[in-house]
Specification:
The complex is a heterodimer of chains A (511) and B (261). Chain A is of the alpha+beta class and 511 residues long. Chain A is built from 14 helices and 13 strands. The longest helix of chain A is centred in the C-terminal third of the chain and has 19 residues, at 332-350. Chain A is globular, with a radius of gyration of 22 Å. Mean pLDDT of chain A is 93; it is low at 1-20 and 22-27. Chain B has 261 residues and is α+β, with helices and mostly antiparallel strands. Chain B has two domains: 12-118, Beta Barrel (OB fold (Dihydrolipoamide Acetyltransferase, E2P)), CATH 2.40.50; 154-260, 2-Layer Sandwich (60s Ribosomal Protein L30, Chain: A), CATH 3.30.1330.60. Chain B is globular and about 60 Å long. The chains are: A alpha+beta (511), B alpha+beta (261).
Chain lengths: 511, 261
């Protein structure tokens, strides 16, 4: 690994070619399993607002025969299929569509197990792949009731009914809730496999008991230590090893367990790869020595993981002062873009609004409502994740806030996602903000914990490389960063001005 | 279970006839009111024609955490003598607040707007946005003892009314876990209780029957779940509601955990 200065210099040089890269169609940098190309120490990939930087702190990765980049299971996929370097180690819907076009739907990405709305649907029919093609969603099939590590069913605090099943999977006699192996199908975005030290930290907020509920935290079976439970949308796998085994089994259709050497290589790769936007078409170089100290992959690699940034001593995404001052070296348009990003940072950190009826935020000692800012929940230094075990219900999947198709005689839009009715048992306290009956597109953490209060609670994601991996939220319900900002504006009745919205979008896109 | 219910009925009847809290106490159930200010919002409640100040919004380290709109709140407070009103409310200090579990749509009121006359006349412990780098009620680094004292062997966990373990118990449970390991405890004795509150109107509010058992069993389950499995658990509970006097009745909603060799 080179010095920080060397990395900065390298990214700055790479950034100069970003304009040329910007002309490259998104999806052209597809990594197929077994590709065999080395992944360099630093790489830059064009996206719609600039370019994303990838940094491998352990040096260039020889991908030939590397288990992250090699098809291991029966469906031809590798980990890299859904965790593409160009997409911030996640997968954008633009890339998915390009891949569909390039292969006429034959790429292993569209395998029946989860790249189709349900395995029983016809392969190659775009309608059968509508959720991955329109929202970038992968089917996640989970047993119901949930089971512990020994495979024994866990007690649950609620009953679950299928109200709407546009994919047909939840009512299917083979794959559904009433099948021989009762299964719930929900549809979620692949998460970035980068910057993972922030996902697995053992720092502030991580202890033997979950800071938001007092319930025991899941412990790493290898070390016995409590985990941060901040990796997957439902926190069902809480270490990189467990996640890799889960993904190999369920998404690669590997019928054996990953071998120890395979696991070690996968985890070693995931622990050293960093990803963040490195170049912005309007604001210029984000990763250079004069850029904001919180931007770019090198700063991510060198910062401390698992510490609070919701303060004025550290900040969530430190932006410094340089960009706030006029610069003779920067054209007016560049300076204006940088000012917008800096204003967006200030909206994120300091613009207060009332956060209301959000489980695992309003219920953890702050009151309902609480007058705070974006950085209250998105407080982890450098990633904007929650420092503590971070599942929360902000309404992305629970009604009445989740995005639903309008129902009237004049629309042709139909619901895409399933809808479940949750009825909390009479012998427990009702959900603190939604009562005993909850309608949800994805019960989230509750599908693992069986807890009424966890219905619709989703582990929040890191904010890095956003420009490379639309759409957003676990169910892909925000197609753009602007839609994401608009969701919050509606959900919490914030009343952002148009300028504030534009600045927030500019800021988020630069992360 | 049946015995507990019988005792509760007697307690309700007798307290309604005979008892009243001390005069300085204000124990009541009400919808909370939240009023915005130029800084953090303040939490209030009306009782018997008076407006009381309950607490300010601060952060998770606060000893008194704000209630929730959409739920009634049980207020157990003492009128603080010689204190100027805050946000227009008579100050209750100390005060214990319990959010009642069931939703109550009548408590879903709007946030009252900030008014100049109700703005805070002091700096709140925590602004509404980012902190200056530490939690509002965390001890200052200079206050830390030079050497940590020996861990306790006996712990008392207090509960919200009708409540089980919540977020704030995580730190207490961690302390128990650490102490059990430090003392190499071979046995953990858990005794949980069910409480009651004498309200200012002379009636008694009693926690749900069976709660003492649920509290005791939950603590054992949580400690086991956190890895404290190599000890014997002695789980006991007393579901007879404690005798409410209207003064510190919150102490009746308690479970003790004792670490034994």
């Amino acid at each position: 690994m080179g010095s920080r200065r060397q990395h900065h210099a390298g990214l700055r040089v790479l950034a100069t070619v970003a304009a040329a890269l910007a002309a490259t169609a998104q999806g052209a940098e597809w990594w197929a399993p077994g590709d065999g190309r080395p992944l360099p120490v630093e790489a830059l990939y064009a996206n719609t607002s600039g370019a994303l930087g990838i940094l491998n702190t352990a040096g260039a990765i020889e991908t030939r025969d590397h288990p992250f980049f090699t098809s291991l299971g029966s469906n031809g996929r590798a980990c890299v299929t859904c965790h593409q370097p160009a997409d911030g180690m996640s997968l954008s819907v633009a890339t998915i569509r390009a891949r569909w076009e390039d292969t006429q739907g034959a790429d292993p990405l569209f395998s029946g197990v989860d790249g189709r709305n349900c395995p029983n649907l016809p392969a190659g029919d775009p309608a059968a792949h509508s959720l991955i093609l329109t929202r970038g969603l992968i089917r996640v099939a989970l047993p119901w009731p949930p089971r512990n590590a020994a495979g024994e069913p866990l007690p649950t605090e609620f009953t679950l009914e299928v109200v709407r099943d546009p994919t047909g999977c939840n009512t299917d006699p083979v794959y559904g809730l009433r099948s021989a192996q009762p299964t719930v199908s929900v549809y979620r975005r692949p998460r970035p496999v980068a910057n993972t030290k922030y996902l697995t930290h053992h720092n502030f907020g991580v202890g033997p008991f979950i800071a938001k509920s007092g319930l025991p935290a899941f412990r790493d079976p290898d070390t016995g230590e409590p985990t941060s439970m901040n990796m997957m949308a439902d926190a069902r796998a809480t270490t990189l090893k467990l996640q890799a085994q889960d993904a190999a089994r369920n998404h690669l259709e590997l019928t054996r367990a990953l071998a120890p050497t395979e696991l070690e290589r996968i985890v070693a790769f995931e622990q050293q790869v960093y990803s963040a936007q490195a170049y912005d078409d309007a604001a210029g170089d984000l990763a250079g020595p004069n850029g904001p100290p919180g931007f770019g992959p090198q700063n991510l690699a060198s910062a401390t993981a698992g510490v609070l940034g919701n303060n004025t001593s550290r900040y969530v995404f430190p932006i410094g002062t340089t960009w706030r001052e006029p610069s003779v070296e920067s054209p007016d348009t560049t300076h204006a873009a940088r000012e917008s990003i800096a204003r967006g940072h200030d909206v994120f950190m300091f613009r207060t609004f009332f956060i209301r009826d959000s489980m695992h935020l309003n219920s953890v000692g702050l009151g309902n409502p609480v007058k705070r800012t974006c950085s209250t929940c998105h407080g982890m230094h450098m990633t904007g994740m929650d420092v503590a075990n971070g599942w929360m219900d902000i309404g992305t999947t629970n009604l009445p806030w989740a995005r639903e198709a309008p129902r009237n005689p004049w629309t042709t839009e139909t619901p895409q996602l399933p809808l479940f009715k949750i009825t909390c048992n009479a012998d427990i306290a009702p959900h603190a903000f939604l009562g005993r009956v909850i309608y949800t597109q994805d019960p989230g953490r509750a599908l693992i914990s069986g807890k009424c209060n966890d219905v619709g609670a989703i582990v929040m994601q890191q904010f890095r490389g956003l420009a490379a991996r639309a759409p957003y939220f676990s169910n892909g319900s925000a197609a753009t960063l602007r839609e994401l900002v608009d969701f919050y504006d509606r959900r919490y009745d914030i009343g952002y001005s148009e300028q504030e919205k534009q600045d927030l979008v500019a800021f988020l896109g630069a992360l | 279970m049946r015995r507990g219910v019988t005792i509760t009925s007697v307690a309700l009847l007798s307290s309604a006839v005979l008892a009243a809290p001390p005069e300085h106490r204000r124990n009541f159930v009400a919808c909370p009111i939240v009023r915005d200010t130029a800084s953090v919002p303040c939490w209030l409640a009306e009782h018997d024609g008076e407006l009381y100040f309950l607490t300010l919004q601060t952060d998770v380290s606060a000893p008194v955490t704000p209630p929730w709109l959409g739920h009634r709140v049980l207020v157990e407070g003492t009128v603080a003598p010689n204190r100027d009103p805050i946000c227009g409310g008579i100050v209750l200090d100390p005060v214990v607040l319990s959010v009642l579990p069931e939703l109550d749509a009548s408590c879903n009121t709007a946030v009252l707007p900030a008014e100049e006359r109700f703005n805070l006349t002091f700096e709140p412990p925590r602004p509404p946005g980012p902190s200056a780098g530490r939690l509002a009620f965390a001890p200052a680094p200079s206050d830390a003892p030079a050497a940590a004292p020996a861990p306790a062997k006996r712990f008392a966990l207090r509960y919200d009314f009708d409540g089980l373990v919540v977020f704030r118990h995580a730190a207490e449970l961690t302390a128990i876990l650490d102490a059990a390991r430090a003392h190499k405890a071979r046995s953990v004795a858990i005794t949980a209780h069910r409480g009651a509150v004498l309200l200012s109107d002379g009636t008694t509010l009693t926690e749900k029957p069976g709660l003492a058992q649920r509290r005791a069993e939950q603590l054992a389950t949580l400690l086991r779940g956190a890895g404290l499995t190599d000890v014997e658990y002695r789980v006991r509970f007393d579901d007879t509601p404690g005798a409410a006097r209207g003064e510190d009745d919150a102490a009746l909603r308690v479970a003790t955990v004792e670490l034994l060799p």
